[in-house]
From TrEMBL:
Residues 1-232 form the PiggyBac transposable element-derived protein domain. Residues 277-340 form the PiggyBac transposable element-derived protein 4 C-terminal zinc-finger domain. Residues 257-278 are annotated as: Disordered. This is PiggyBac transposable element-derived protein domain-containing protein. Signal peptide: none annotated.
Length: 341
């Protein structure tokens, strides 16, 4: 994916709220974001957002969706509005975004602090707001021309080395913090954005992921972690958070992965009996096949599950019995034990 540091692993698109993952869709380097075909005018990432939203319950409910600038576009917000889903999020200067607001990115030092400029496009409000730098945003659930569209919040004075440091310091003066009005869409975005980030923070507390060569294993671990976090979020919503996630996760993981009730066969297979009806002496000789095989005594009488050691490989056999056995010179007693059984 563009602007991503690595192309390995899985990219998982998640619909989440306050850390609870409601639905997700995985993608990888070889199996990227597919066109789901529900809104052809959207980009692949836009179609993915549209598809995730379609999984929400349809019981005459409306939803407000908050996204970062990786997903947002005017066409996506218009499509979401048509299915009664409001949307708000920061954005990048894309094709449908007004050119006049794009140019403000280059004129940031000349625009007054906290100045708001807005242009509607296809029932989507495109906004540019002067903060420490010009912030571009899209929204279908806010306006900026009413008194109630602004809310007072405590702001911290940025460093003088910030992008518009001299301009901002004129507003703060000598005060390190100051109560200032900000657009309500920015306040709502800061309050409601980050549901997936909260889920990621919870998963990092007790991550079950380990290195593996199986391609499905990371997805399995991720699903297990998400199941634990979702259970914890439900627990914390319904109760007064009786325990921390660190204490909640281990027993929940054991509950979600019960020990198998199917028992392995424990009976030992019996090795072939020594051959006594042969004229050849029982001697350890080099195998004529010159191929390493597992010592038959190690394999049948000393399995790894009992001794902790793997059965030895050997190229030697008993010439009378024609079975692979460890040489006595190696310090093992397989040859003697086999012929005395």
């Amino acid at each position: 994916m563009p602007n991503k540091p690595i192309s390995q692993g899985f990219k998982i698109f998640v619909l989440a709220d306050h850390g609870y993952c409601y639905y997700f869709y995985p993608a990888s380097r070889t199996k990227g974001v597919v066109e789901v075909g529900m809104a052809k005018e959207l980009t692949k990432t836009g179609q993915m957002v549209y598809e995730l939203v379609q999984t929400l319950p349809k019981d005459n409910k409306t939803y407000d969706l908050y996204l970062d600038n990786y997903f947002t576009s005017v066409n996506l917000f218009k499509a979401l509005r048509e299915i009664q889903v409001g949307a708000c999020g920061t954005t990048r200067p894309h094709k449908e975004f007004p050119n006049l607001l794009k140019k403000l990115k280059d004129l940031g030092s000349y625009i007054p602090y906290h100045k708001v400029c807005a242009i509607p496009v296809n029932d989507v409000l495109c906004v540019a707001w002067q903060d420490n730098n010009i912030v571009l945003a899209l929204t279908t659930i806010h306006t900026v021309d009413q008194t109630d569209d602004y809310i007072e919040r405590t702001r911290r004075r940025p460093q003088k080395t910030s992008t518009n440091g001299p301009l901002v310091h004129k507003e703060f003066g000598e005060q390190a913090v100051k109560n200032m009005p900000i657009p309500r869409f920015i306040d709502d975005y800061n309050s409601h954005m980050g549901g997936v980030d909260i889920a990621n923070q919870h998963r990092a507390v007790y991550d079950t992921h380990i290195k593996a060569f199986r391609s499905w294993w990371p997805l399995w671990n991720w699903c297990l972690d998400v199941g634990i976090v979702n259970a914890y979020k439900i627990h914390s919503f319904r109760r007064q958070l009786s325990k921390s996630l660190l204490l909640f996760a281990p027993p929940m993981a054991r509950y979600m992965q019960p020990t198998s009730t199917k028992k392995r066969k424990t009976e030992d297979l019996q090795p072939p009996k020594p051959q006594n009806n042969t004229s050849l002496p029982h001697l350890v000789v080099k195998s004529y096949l010159k191929v390493q095989k597992r010592c038959i005594w190690c394999l049948y009488k000393n399995p790894k599950r009992q001794t902790g050691q793997s059965p030895s490989f050997t190229t030697f056999i008993c010439q009378a019995c024609d079975v692979p056995l460890c040489r006595p010179e190696t310090g093992r007693t397989c040859f003697r034990n086999f012929h005395m059984c």
